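Troubleshooting entry. The earlier prediction with magnesium ion gave an output that would not parse, so I re-checked the input for stray whitespace and re-submitted. Clean input:
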Amino acid sequence: MNIIGKISDYFKSKHSCCDCGIEKITVKGLKKIAIVGSPNVGKSVLFNCLTGNYVTVSNYPGTTVEVSRGKTKIGEFEFEVVDTPGMYSLLPITEEERVSRNLLLNEKHDCVMHVVDAKNLERMLPLTLQLIEAGLPVMLVLNIIDEAEKACMKIELASLEKDLKIPVVGTVATTGRGIDILKGRIEEYVR
Ligand SMILES: Nc1nc2c(ncn2[C@@H]2O[C@H](COP(=O)(O)OP(=O)(O)OP(=O)(O)O)[C@@H](O)[C@H]2O)c(=O)[nH]1
Ligand SMILES: [Mg+2]
């Protein structure tokens, strides 16, 4: 079995318990969104777009890595949104990556938003595939579309969506472009 298969099995076996002493958080009625992706792709700006002022920042247990959690309402659903530290792969090298992976392992999310820099799509898609293969409910967010457009890059969201078989949305988190569409797709996705 390859490494992705192993991670996938590990995730499946973790649905009802965990071995790191952190209890899985399951607040009735509150759905959960995780924002993941490489450093510097706009995860935190996107997190702020979604959550506004309802935010708490704390160290992930046993580490000095900060994790922000906030709440938002989209349509009829209430969500807890977690902004994870930058990660390049599900196989962690840095403490930040380990925290992000543990967050994904130990908490069950209704939607895992993989945020990528639209200009560097090819470099970032391998993590999308890892997340999909790990059995997570992935949605791909192509952020920084404004700079991709300035560089005359044309990205076919619909064909990417067809190939990956997951929702794909384009955003400019700094101006709020695409955020309403993103919210609509999240609502559709968790319904
Ligand atoms: N042009 C442009 N800049 C953006 C966009 N989204 C975010 N940025 C900028 O990108 C930089 C990084 O944004 P962050 O939200 O801090 O990135 P991050 O993914 O949270 O980074 P880490 O926390 O280090 O993993 C900031 O300077 C943002 O202003 C966008 O859609 N367009
Ligand atoms: Mg950040």
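This one parsed fine. Confidence is low (pLDDT under 50) at residues 10-27.
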